[in-house]
Amino acid sequence: QKEVEQNSGPLSVPEGAIASLNCTYSDRGSQSFFWYRQYSGKSPELIMSIYSNGDKEDGRFTAQLNKASQYVSLLIRDSQPSDSATYLCAVNLSGYSTLTFGKGTMLLVSP
Amino acid sequence: DAGVIQSPRHEVTEMGQEVTLRCKPISGHDYLFWYRQTMMRGLELLIYFNNNVPIDDSGMPEDRFSAKMPNASFSTLKIQPSEPRDSAVYFCASSSGVYQPQHFGDGTRLSIL
C-alpha cells in the first residue's frame, strides 16, 4: 500500500507567521522528495527538492527531511496572502516506478 | 525554455464523443506522464512513457482510455467513448529521470455533459 500522507487542511495562518506543512511516507528507502505548490485552477509548480537528511533553505522556504522518522516538512517564513495555495508532497516509494504524490494541504494566509 | 505544452486548455463535449488531449514535453526530457486530478481522488497517475515507450499504464481506468507517444515531442491521451465521470483536469508532465522533478503543463479542463 503506497502511502504519502498529508493533512488536507485548511491550515490557516496570519500574514507574517511561519506556516509548517508536513508529509509522512511509508518507505524507509525513499531517496527523492519534492514540494509542489498548486494555486486554485492552476497546475502544480515545483518549489523545493530535497534528497538528504536535514534542512534545505531557498528564500522564505525551508524543507526539512528526517528519513529515520519518515517525514518531510515545508516551512514558509513570513507567510504572505500570495502563499495561499495547496501544497503537494511527492516521494519516490520503493516498488513503485514513479513518484507518489500526496493529496495536498491547503494553506490559507489571512492579511 | 518552453515548458510542457498541453492543448486544448478547455474541452466541453457530450457523452459518447471522442476526446483527444495533446501534450508536448520539455525538449530533452525522456519521461512523459499523464495525470488526472479531481477533488475526490487528488492527482492520479494514468500512464507514463520512457523514450516514447509506455512503461506503466496500470492507472488507466478502463479500455475507453488510450495513450500514444509517436515521437519524443508529442503525446496524446484519448477517451472513446467519453462519459460524465471522466470530467476532470488532465495534466501532462515531463522529467529527465523517473525520480527527478516533474514539470507540469497547464492542464486540460475536461467537461463531459
Secondary-structure element order of chain A, N to C: EEEEEEEEEEE
User: Sheet bearing the most strands of chain B, described?
Assistant: 7 strands, mixed
Q: How many helical stretches of chain B?
A: 0
Query: What is the assembly state of the chains in this entry?
Result: heterodimer
Q: Considering residues with a beta carbon less than 8 A from a beta carbon on another chain, report the largest interface and each chain's count.
A: A-B, 19 and 18 residues
Distance separating the two termini of chain B: 37 Å
- Shape of chain B from CA axes? globular
What's the N-to-C terminus distance of chain A? 40 Å
Q: Averaged pLDDT of chain B, please?
A: 95
Helix content of chain A: under 10%
How many β strands of chain A by DSSP? 11
The number of distinct β-strands of chain B equals: 11
* Helix content range of chain B: under 10%
Q: What class do helices, strands and sheet pairing of chain B give?
A: mainly beta
Secondary structure layout:
The complex is a heterodimer of chains A (111) and B (113).
Chain A: E1 4-5, E2 11-14, E3 19-25, E4 33-38, E5 45-50, E6 54-58, E7 61-66, E8 71-76, E9 85-92, E10 99-101, E11 105-110
Parallel strand pairs in A: 2-11
Antiparallel strand pairs in A: 1-3, 3-8, 4-5, 4-9, 6-7, 7-8, 9-10, 9-11
Chain B: E1 5-7, E2 10-13, E3 19-24, E4 31-38, E5 42-50, E6 53-56, E7 65-71, E8 74-79, E9 88-95, E10 103-104, E11 108-112
Labels describing this entry:
heterodimer, A: 111 residues, mainly beta, five-stranded antiparallel β-sheet, 11 strands, B: mainly beta, seven-stranded mixed β-sheet
